[in-house]
Predict the structure.
Amino acid sequence: MTDREARQARAARLRRVHAERFGPGPLRFARAPGRVNLIGEHTDYQLGYVLPIALDRDIWIAFRASESALARAVSLDLGEEVALDLKVGPAGPPGHWSRYLHGLAAVLRGVGHELRGIDAVVQGEVPTGAGLSSSAALLVAWGLALADAGGLALEPAELAHAARLAEHRYAGVRSGPMDFVVALHGRPEGPILIDCADGSFRPVPGPPVGAVLLLTWSGVKHELAATAYNERVAQCEAALRALGALELPGLRALRSVDEGLLEGVRSELEPVLYRRARHVVRENVRVLAAVSALEAGDAAWLGRLLRESHESLRDDYEVSCAEIDTLVELACGVDGVFGSRITGGGFGGATVTLLERDAVERFREQVAAGYRAARGREATFLEVVAGAGASVGELTGSARWC
Ligand code: GLA
């Protein structure tokens, strides 16, 4: 099946289910992609730089506005339906996908948007629990659907902010802006550099000719990942407070701190806070170096930066885990690999590896066998294919967005 036929089949399935459940009529579609972060980890909530790539794996929502006060949504993947009262709530149980839908509706209502009823069918191709940001894809697609159905004037920056608040309040994760910005503005040509201080972004070339990016999923997601993530956010804030207490001028976030400044006040910081801050400060420098490496088409340089990023996340930021460290070590031992590191929030999930295209088969074999031998687990691989940022509109017969 070609990509176009696959999209047509996907759209036809959503239309069929929507008609069966909610009756015939015209439909609109919203979609948003997952993402992989190439480099710039745990910098976004300190207003730093990130370099993510939107994936060609996305979530689709087929929808139609209704006259009721309800948002009704069927999840094709889970075989579940939820009905949310758009006027009052209440939110679904913790961890349930409906909390995202409810949460975003509540945030939008809270800032004065009048929501209309909506009947929707949701279907996704972003692997969940793999650190590929399926929750941000769901939030962004849902936000576009709600805005379209209700005729809301909702700028992308406002949607990104509202989605982030919904994740904070209803999923309990104090995430940064990265996942929402890349879900909205990602591009099939390659990564975008986001400056999280003001949300601005610009395109950056993809991997040099002959090199590819490969995701390796560890099969591990630690239970306390959200708690540990929030703890890192709080530690950065504590480091910033300690630095601010030293009356450093204009200090708004660790983004404004350079290594010389940090070294100068090292003795004033608790060792753990110093290490957290050092990761953020150095990672920001690495992101800008990675942009230069991509612009120069220098895979070896980019690979070194990925390895350094991993070491820093493992030792200073302590968001890796034994399984992921094994995957990175195995990856770096394969001939043709430039570099590898943990990607996403951490505590499990996936690694991203830059390697020669010709080395992909060898890589899969060696890493799968090594991982099985060392950890008794199966690794899963996915080649990173960049995809377009979110969109909303009608789907024509050829499944093109307009
Ligand atoms: C998660 C968060 C992002 C970002 C990454 C770490 O994916 O949602 O905002 O902080 O972790 O870089």
